Amino acid sequence: MPEYRVYFIEADGRIYQPPQIIKCADDQDATEKARQFIDGKDVQVWQMSRLVAKFPRK
C-alpha angle with apex 23: 21 to 27, nearest 5 degrees? Predict the structure, then answer.
């Protein structure tokens, strides 16, 4: 299964912490799993150098 990276982004655009690596069947699966990480930070999902999804903080 492909690896995806979930990045946590501060309001000023800086990466907050090391990415969470998740293994998913496809982009849709990665997007669904990444939603669990949305909590006070922007979240971005990447597969290598390709941006898959962005989620604003709640």
Answer: 105
AA letter at 12: D
DSSP state of 48: T
pTM of this structure: 0.89
- CB-based contact 42:54 (threshold 8 Å): yes
56, amino acid identity: P
Other Cβ atoms less than 10 A from the Cβ of 54: the count is 12
> Which phi and psi (to 5°) does residue 25 adopt?
-70, -35
The first and second tokens of residue 57, run together, are 């903080």
Give CA–CA dist 33/29, Å, rounded. 6
pLDDT digits (tens, 9 = 90+) for 39-56: 888 999 999 999 999 999
